[in-house]
Amino acid sequence: METYLEAEPVRVKNDTSVKRFGTLRISPGWAAVTVVFFSMSLAIGGGQYAFGVFVEPLETQFGWTRTQINGSLSFSAIGGLIAPFVGRLMDKHGSRPVVTVSLIMMAVSFLLRPFMTELWHLYALSTLQFAGFPGGAMLPGARLVGIWFPRTRGRMMGITATGANFGGITMPTLMGLLVGVLSWEWGYVVLGFIGLSIAIAGLLVINETPIEKRISKQSQGLPDSGEKDKNDPQDIPGTTVRDAVRSRSFYALSIGMLAATFTYHAILTQIVPHLQNVGLSLNTAAIFLSLVAVFGLVGKIIFGYLTERFLSKNVLALSLVLQSLGLLVLITLADTPFLWVVLPVYGTALGGMGAVFPLLIQDSFGLKYFGTIFGLVNMATIGSSLVGPLMVGLVFDATGSYDLAFISVIGIFAVGVIALQFAEATFRKPETCEKVLPPGSDQ
Question: How many Cβ atoms from other residues are within 10 Å of residue 135's Cβ?
Fold first, then answer.
């Protein structure tokens, strides 16, 4: 007896695109998003969550200061700057080469770190790491989910995005074990080989042509290469980049996403010191933040599912409203039991944003040029990474509290909610539904 895990309801006898693992047959849609799930685990879990594991060993061996080591994280802005170019390559050549090359770049950046002797080596390798980030994380994930799971894309985007949370849970533990038992060099080597393994898997299994389209080609006597037909302009619907950047929706979404990402750069990194500042112990504050991450994993799936029932812009607006309520509790009731009452709501809403961002672009502009457009919109979020940390630092130094900074972020969220209402969900309107969904993709 054989078990099926399929992205589409069509089963094709002897279809070579369906991967066999013993008696388990996995459709190419599931195989593709599984690769992206683990790619995000490496990119975010290994590159960011596990970063702190290596700080003290690098400080001890090279004498670098914490500021110098942490400075390597600032090169994450590289990913935002090159995202439009990576997205353009993905639109033109598909997800498979982009994912493969991006993972190889990240893997090489880890594999070469044991040979570092100068601080600029760390910065150069961090640049290479973050240059591979756009093509190894959300860009290909959103494209593949949109192609393979058009009717359940919300929940599937949520499931795929939980790869970041999975990496955040597993990678620091694994790296801590390796660094503690062996050395920091071996930690980076293992990260590198994990990246190469995922790259090979992506090269083998990522496919962008749903089975129904290949069946249609075969029934018409057309050749089936198993690859996307680049000569078919109707293969994937979507707004052109030129029309997108001239639209009101482009700027509405840019402002909305810019506002939303302040939660990462001005709030998430400051929760622990804020709770300590109001009298909670370090351990209690750390537990609170860990639970935020756990509920964030659940939130990606919940908010992803909500995008299948409601417009993505309204789902993101709901997330910002709920986060604002959570911030009000953090400001006024952080030393009371209400903090733990609001925790599930706050964590779920914060985590859910990760699944909604790419779906906003698909709602307004479709999939054909998704990579380029999402990359361009994502450039706006560089502003929050530059302004957010500086703002909270200045406010705390001036007032001795994070309260005013958190209130400012609530105001920024409000601007984002208003801006999102000006975005048009062109590719969610009933009259375009048949154009967006591939034949036979109803699930």
Answer: 31
Calculate the CA 261 to chain-centre distance.
12
Of 11-25, 237-251, 396-410, which range is least confident? 11-25
Chain centre distance of CA 92: 21
The CA distances from residue 287 to 4, 13, 327, in Å, are: 39, 50, 17
CB-based contact 154:359 (threshold 8 Å): yes
Taking the C-alpha atoms of residue 127 and residue 132, their distance in angstroms, rounded to an integer, is 9
What does the alpha-carbon distance between residue 361 and residue 374 come to, in Å, rounded to a whole number? 6
- The pTM of the full predicted model, rounded to 2 decimals, is 0.69
Round to whole Å and give the CA distance between 349 and 319.
5
Q: With 50 as the cut, is the pLDDT of residue 15 above it?
A: no
Instruction: Render pLDDT for 61-78 as a digit per residue (tens, 0 to 9).
Output: 888 876 677 677 777 778
β-partners of residue 5 are 26
Rounded to whole angstroms, the Cα distance separating 243 from 250 reads 9
Q: Is the pLDDT of residue 222 over 80?
A: no
Please report the pLDDT score of residue 315 as a whole number. 92
List domains and CATH numbers for the chain: 3-219 (1.20.1250.20), 241-436 (1.20.1250.20)
Encode pLDDT of 282-332 as tens digits: 778 777 877 887 888 888 888 988 988 888 899 999 999 999 999 999 999
| Nearest to 113, CA basis, from 198, 200, 197, 191 | 191
Q: Compare 170 and 347 and report the one with higher pLDDT.
A: 347
Phi/psi for 160 (5° steps) reads -65, -45
CA atoms within 13 A on the CB side of 423: 33
